[in-house]
């Protein structure tokens, strides 16, 4: 069995043939360390950030990985304990300090984590590993060395930014986060970071807020994981899952709370969808993490997203104790969780009050509706594009069809919150394709287009598969994006933890 050994990594073997046009790197981020000394982390989003890299060159592939040396990681390794509070794990004061030092440490304010385990994306000519706080971490994507920590609060009025920005063809980055708005109320800011500067200055230094709009509740902004963007509009879904800011600021430092303790659901609130034009209401509340695509067509904005029915926070089901339970207990808990759907909402742009009670959507290819009520609010009903096992972590041919009318979405199929298949969905015909193997757990599939490709799905999907029961428990998988047939796989002779998001760097 052939293997390829470099100073960086060991690829035990690969089967098939690596496409010759793959000449870059697959970058992935996720949790890689779940306990420090005798102290465990409790939530899936608490594990310390580990970056993975598969390099493609001359038809071969090598694997490399390193922990991101964030403050959270370095201090934890140095002190052999959890030092900074994470998503679901509270950091207690140093037990070696005397009782007075420990008491006063509770009143120093919130120390926000920089554990950047969620995603990686480019800003100018640099690359940043990110989570959902105000801290992003610059990394060298060739060596995976950690370069510096950047606090976005130094440049714009923002409490944090999402791990899912939109990046235009020229490199301009748009992102969203909550902030303190006018009259001491919570608001949301759309932040713009310009592309590479001619004078080689840092684009982050020229960041600015381009849109601000208020939160529905004064001290309770919605949890925001992603947003939609078309050629001319931003679309933001304000869900009933809220961050209680007062609890965050007070109970955190006095009672020892973590991020999860500060979330609550507003059962009375539906879902408000905002564009630059009008406030719209969805009839039934949903949870939502990932937008799939947003585009304009014939006077309408089409918004496709992965929805979870109801108001319960899905992250409540991702405690490590639950995921490590026996399979029957995992399935039992998941049966009580919100149920998922891929949905399409259509927002009308040309609105007249005399059209009350009428479906304003006239696009011929969708059953989604938008009806104006007497109070001027427009109630949206979706078209269900897919209903079944959860379709999540969606990806599209983003470079060519991001913000455009498109046909194909790719994603993870979840079996009771466990990813066990790769799915392809035709959003126009609702046809589906599936790749699946026993005891194999893939990650988010990233689309890479064939250079001379004509069709939207001319390309490959790159995913990392964890196979804990096998002799070699992890591998890179390359699939044909047209039919999900296997092109090649490269097995790694080491255990690989789950990854969340990432990118292909040409």
UniProtKB/TrEMBL annotation:
Source domain of life: Eukaryota
Keywords: Cell membrane, Hydrolase, Iron, Isomerase, Lipoprotein, Membrane, Metal-binding, Palmitate, Sensory transduction, Vision
Catalysis performed (reactions): lutein = (3R,3'S)-zeaxanthin; an all-trans-retinyl ester + H2O = 11-cis-retinol + a fatty acid + H(+); all-trans-retinyl hexadecanoate + H2O = 11-cis-retinol + hexadecanoate + H(+)
EC id: 3.1.1.64, 5.3.3.22
Annotated transmembrane regions: none
Protein's organism: Sparus aurata (Gilthead sea bream)
GO biological-process terms attached to the record: retinal metabolic process; visual perception; zeaxanthin biosynthetic process
PANTHER family: BETA-CAROTENE DIOXYGENASE, RETINOID ISOMEROHYDROLASE
Topology versus the membrane: Lipid-anchor
One Pfam short name: RPE65
Cofactor(s) listed in the protein's UniProt record: Fe(2+)
Full protein name: Retinoid isomerohydrolase
Cofactor binding note: Binds 1 Fe(2+) ion per subunit.
Residues annotated for Fe cation binding in this entry: 164, 225, 290, 501
Subcellular location: Cell membrane
GO molecular function, one term: all-trans-retinyl-ester hydrolase, 11-cis retinol forming activity
GO cellular component, one term: plasma membrane
Coiled-coil ranges (or none): none
UniProt record similarity statement: Belongs to the carotenoid oxygenase family.
């Amino acid at each position: 069995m052939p293997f390829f050994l470099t100073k960086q990594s060991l690829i035990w073997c690969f089967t098939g043939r690596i496409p010759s046009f793959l000449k870059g790197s697959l970058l992935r981020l996720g949790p890689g360390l779940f306990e420090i000394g005798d102290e465990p982390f409790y939530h899936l989003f608490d594990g310390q950030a580990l970056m993975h890299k598969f390099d493609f060159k001359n038809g071969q592939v090598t694997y490399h990985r390193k922990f991101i040396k964030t403050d959270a990681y370095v201090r934890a390794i140095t002190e052999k304990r959890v030092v900074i509070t994470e998503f679901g794990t509270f950091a207690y004061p140093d037990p070696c300090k005397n009782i007075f030092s420990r008491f006063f440490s509770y009143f120093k304010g919130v120390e926000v984590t920089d554990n950047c385990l969620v995603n990686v994306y480019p800003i100018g000519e640099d690359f940043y590993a990110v989570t959902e706080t105000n801290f992003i971490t610059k990394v060298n994507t060739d060596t995976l060395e950690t370069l510096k920590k950047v606090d976005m609060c130094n440049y714009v009025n923002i409490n944090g930014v999402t791990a899912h920005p939109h990046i235009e063809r020229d490199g301009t980055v748009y992102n969203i986060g909550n902030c303190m708005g006018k009259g001491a109320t919570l608001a949301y800011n759309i932040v713009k970071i310009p592309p590479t500067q001619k004078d080689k200055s840092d684009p982050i230094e020229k960041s600015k807020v381009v849109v601000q709009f208020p939160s529905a509740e004064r001290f309770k902004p919605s949890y925001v994981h992603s947003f939609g963007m078309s050629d001319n509009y931003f679309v933001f879904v304000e869900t009933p899952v809220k961050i209680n800011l007062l609890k965050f600021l007070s109970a955190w430092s006095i009672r020892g709370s973590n991020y999860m303790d500060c979330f609550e659901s507003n059962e009375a609130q539906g879902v408000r969808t905002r564009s630059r034009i009008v406030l719209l209401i969805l009839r039934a509340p949903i949870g939502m993490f990932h937008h799939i695509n947003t585009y304009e067509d014939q006077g309408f904005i089409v918004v496709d997203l992965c929805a979870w029915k109801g108001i319960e926070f899905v992250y409540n089901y991702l405690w490590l104790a639950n995921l490590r339970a026996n399979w029957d207990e995992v399935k039992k808990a998941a049966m009580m969780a919100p149920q998922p759907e891929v949905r399409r909402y259509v927002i009308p742009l040309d609105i007249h009050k005399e059209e009350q009670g009428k479906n304003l959507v006239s696009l011929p290819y969708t059953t989604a509706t938008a009806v104006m009520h007497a109070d001027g609010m427009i109630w949206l009903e979706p078209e269900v594009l897919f209903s079944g096992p959860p379709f999540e972590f969606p990806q599209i041919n983003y470079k060519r069809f991001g913000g455009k009318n498109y046909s194909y979405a790719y994603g993870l199929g979840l079996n009771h919150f466990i990813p066990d298949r790769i799915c392809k969905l035709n959003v126009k015909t609702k046809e589906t394709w599936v790749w699946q193997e026993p005891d194999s757990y893939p990650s988010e599939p990233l689309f890479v287009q064939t250079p001379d490709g004509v069709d939207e799905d001319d390309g490959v999907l790159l995913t990392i598969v964890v196979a804990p029961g096998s002799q070699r428990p992890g591998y890179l998988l390359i699939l044909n994006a047209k039919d999900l047939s296997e092109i090649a796989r490269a097995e790694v002779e080491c255990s690989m933890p789950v990854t969340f998001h990432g990118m292909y760097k040409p």
